[in-house]
Amino acid sequence: MKNILILTAGYGEGHNSAARGIRDGLRKIAPHDVHVELHDLFADTYGVVNDWARVLYMGMINRTPRVWGVIYRWLDRQTDFVGDFRVFFPLKNYLRRLLERLQPEVIVSVYPAYSHMLDEMFGRGGAPQYKRVVVVTDSISVNAIWYQCSADYFLLPNEVSADVLLHAGILAEKVKTFGFPVSPIFAQPGEFRPPPSDENGRRVLYIINAANTAAPELVRRLAGLPEIQMTVTVGRNAGLKVSVEKIRRTVTQEFEAVAWSDELPRLLRANHLVISKAGGATVQEAMSA
User: Fold this and answer.
1) Same domain? 98 vs 51
2) Is the dihedral of CA 32, 34, 40, 46 positive or negative?
């Protein structure tokens, strides 16, 4: 029985989506040969403080994209991140205890900070008892924070992204193009989805992006289209959920509102049209559906 540790973080749903896809895929193809644990160490260590940090981070990306662009480009110019994560010593202590308990053969990092923390804990290339795998969720434009670290393998979603690492000097034998790790549910035979028509209906899935202040008005306008059947996902935003529920009670046409759940693969496969921010994970999952 091999122990595999997957490390993720809630700073963008793509990381969690990829982490769940890897976990579920491993459990499906080798249910008796691997023990997989998935952890968000930021959430486990910092609790409500991490929740606030996530809100601020997502707000910055959605409300002040130029500020985020400056930070992104600054990170992309760095060549050494060791020492930048020293303030996260409670998290690293938690990670050390987790490694001692689980003794994983493989550590899979689906969020770039973890690889640099491991370098700070063990030195670059240290602790060879752990195979280190970095799963890059960036596509096409890959920030240097993903690959300026120690790793046995870097897994990329496509060849264009892989070329970024190769051009940066990462050894070719470490760079593997496996595609984006979506849920294995997408590989299972599903119910036949008839094409949209008056007879079959026109099903629309609206995945509301975090901090989207225009979302309630768009929900109201979509709910006024009599020829569609709509499902709205409101995520973990309690205020947004209240707003959407108010709209449900005031419009004549019914629609379904769901909180964030692992049912997204099923919802994607059941609908004809997806309205969403074109995030990397969402695009890959929509293509798989």
Assistant:
1) yes
2) positive
